[in-house]
UniProtKB/TrEMBL annotation:
<keyword id="KW-0408">Iron</keyword>
<dbReference type="InterPro" id="IPR036648">
    <property type="entry name" value="CN_Hdrase_a/SCN_Hdrase_g_sf"/>
</dbReference>
<feature type="domain" description="Nitrile hydratase alpha/Thiocyanate hydrolase gamma">
    <location>
        <begin position="15"/>
        <end position="200"/>
    </location>
</feature>
<dbReference type="InterPro" id="IPR018141">
    <property type="entry name" value="Nitrile_hydratase_asu"/>
</dbReference>
<dbReference type="InterPro" id="IPR023900">
    <property type="entry name" value="CN_Hdrtase_asu/SCN_Hdrlase_gsu"/>
</dbReference>
<keyword id="KW-0479">Metal-binding</keyword>
<feature type="binding site">
    <location>
        <position position="114"/>
    </location>
    <ligand>
        <name>Fe(3+)</name>
    </ligand>
</feature>
<feature type="binding site">
    <location>
        <position position="115"/>
    </location>
    <ligand>
        <name>Fe(3+)</name>
    </ligand>
</feature>
<dbReference type="GO" id="GO:0046914">
    <property type="term" value="F:transition metal ion binding"/>
</dbReference>
<dbReference type="GO" id="GO:0018822">
    <property type="term" value="F:nitrile hydratase activity"/>
</dbReference>
<comment type="similarity">
    <text>Belongs to the nitrile hydratase subunit alpha family.</text>
</comment>
<feature type="binding site">
    <location>
        <position position="113"/>
    </location>
    <ligand>
        <name>Fe(3+)</name>
    </ligand>
</feature>
<dbReference type="InterPro" id="IPR004232">
    <property type="entry name" value="CN_Hdrtase_a/SCN_Hdrlase_g"/>
</dbReference>
<dbReference type="Pfam" id="PF02979">
    <property type="entry name" value="NHase_alpha"/>
</dbReference>
<feature type="binding site">
    <location>
        <position position="110"/>
    </location>
    <ligand>
        <name>Fe(3+)</name>
    </ligand>
</feature>
<keyword id="KW-0456">Lyase</keyword>
<protein>
    <recommendedName>
        <fullName>nitrile hydratase</fullName>
        <ecNumber>4.2.1.84</ecNumber>
    </recommendedName>
</protein>
Length: 205
């Protein structure tokens, strides 16, 4: 990932210290219990995250009819799979998928804030919320993608999709070449959160 969208290591430590202080205050006032935050974090570590998105993408790679349904009606297609309950809630409301192909590369941003489909991508990284990323990706997506290591040829169109509270987008990246012999579960390992945001390609086999 480009250094332009990285942060000093102490930024997360500083933010974590502030969160701990706020958590302690809320517990002291009786608004939270000491297990509330751990329960929420555990939920997004084990139930809602990029492992769900990887399952969805891998199924789309092996099943063209599912892929078509996924793009046409994302919530209905996601509901077909054996995924945890709650995929349509907790920042998963109104999810929509767009698929990369040789003619189009899709990029997901949120110009207003950091709207993000948590059930399929996990929690948003710092750089996704950064005003520099959000504004530059909207203005010059090809240059920003190049900084992430994704050189999109001029012959390939780039479409930028702006997530919001009404629609939370994610990308079905192109299936890597040479993966015809891989099983669906093996394909899941090639799908990363970044590829489902459009700032990376799926891993090579």
């Amino acid at each position: 990932m480009t250094d332009r969208f990285k942060y000093r290591e102490d930024r997360e430590a500083y933010s974590a210290a502030r969160v701990r202080a706020l958590e302690a205050l809320l517990i002291q006032k009786g608004i939270l219990t000491d297990k509330s935050v751990d329960t929420v974090l555990g939920y997004f570590e084990t139930k809602m995250g990029p492992f769900n998105g990887a399952k969805i993408v891998a199924r789309a790679w092996v099943d063209p009819e599912f892929k078509a349904r996924l793009v046409a009606d994302t919530p209905a297609a996601v509901a077909e799979l054996d995924l945890p309950a709650g995929m349509a809630g907790a920042e998963g409301e109104h999810m929509r998928a767009v698929a990369n192909d040789p003619g189009v590369h899709n990029l997901i941003i949120c110009t207003l804030c950091s709207c993000y489909p948590w059930p399929v991508l996990g929690l948003p990284p710092y750089w996704y919320k950064d005003p520099t990323f959000r504004s530059r990706a909207a203005r010059e997506p090809r240059a920003v993608l190049a900084e992430f290591g994704v050189d999109v040829p001029e012959s390939q169109q780039i479409k930028v999709w702006d997530s919001s509270a009404q629609i939370r987008w994610f990308v079905v990246p192109e299936r890597p070449a040479g993966t015809e012999s891989l099983s669906e579960s093996e394909l899941e390992a090639l799908v990363t959160p970044e590829s489902m945001m459009g700032v990376a390609l799926a891993k090579a086999a």
